[in-house]
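To the team - 2-oxoglutaric acid complex, inputs and output below.
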Amino acid sequence: LSFTPTIISCQPTTTTTSPSPLFASSVNDVTSESIQELNGRERITITLPPFAAMNQRDACQYPSVLHHLHIQSLLSQEEASKACQMAHDFAASTGRWLKPDSERHQSYATCDFPVEDCETLQDFLDEVDFDGRLFKSLSDLYNIEMEDLSYLDLFVAHYQAKTDNNDNPQIMDRLEAHRDGSILAFSLLLNSPDDFEGGGTFYEALRDVPPSFGVLHAGGTIRPQKAGDAVMHCGKILHGADVVTSGSRTVLVGFVDVSERCQRPGVLSEACKEWGRVDVVKYRFERQESKGHQGWLSNNSKFFHGDASSSAVKGFLPALQGVIRRNNPELCRRRRLEAEDVLLRNILLPSEERSNDVFDGDISILDINFEDDPSEA
Ligand SMILES: O=C(O)CCC(=O)C(=O)O
Ligand SMILES: [Fe+2]
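Output:
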């Protein structure tokens, strides 16, 4: 794959403040207005390569704004260091980093705590207007009104190398590839990159992209170069946390949802269906293999009452070549990434198609007089 990521450094410029287009034809089209407001902090943008073939029915031709990952400082190094200290103090007094929180994150549990549980950290982030900085950046970069963005979760996660002198098997040193529950997400490094080796956020779609600019490393892993830098991305891009091989890495992670009025209905469920089909490929192969690829008689009698001898109940399931052909890890990876690319092209509606009928929280109560209800009599 000879794809080179698009990388730009956004220094403060005198760009006009025209609204950013939904689907920027190049990352340079994304307005840098907010970047100037953030004290001219540098931003690096990396664009995922295309995986799906061009399809005229796609709402947007590659790349859409969601194909871009942005690395940008959202806290100064001093602010990040203060926040990190607060997080450590809280975790030390509660033991929250000693075992994965599988109640809050059922499938991909991390050793973490929600920011709202730690008053000092919450107050500090409020004081520096962290939410304002983040939402303004996400709004400009992904062309979504600030009012359409909301937190689904905001937490501090801690990864620690599994070394000989660490006897807690529960600590976490990595996070397997997954997709977040939200459309947007970010991961902000709170401690110094000098505190650990390995780590970083990896993206399956960047796996074969050559390393560059000191932030993109082999295997598609992004490692910000200083504390306070965040990687912002679409949460539906397959990603995870690379293994920390020494020291520890502390990150502030946020899942940011986008109002339904900005999303094209059906796009997420279509992608989920395809990911689900790929997920069962291995299982179907293993089941067929266990029958020697000969086919087998289904035994559905447990689902039927009555005549369990009918041919509808005991059907012959033939072995299929397709089950064997599809059981190819590289093919499965491509199918997942193709569906991801199609989702990125289609999920956001252009501004003019976003409905203004937002539910304003005003509930009208139907005029039911219980006293007149005959059933009460
Ligand atoms: O540690 C990271 O950079 C990624 C964390 C993440 O993806 C998650 O918690 O969902
Ligand atoms: Fe994630």
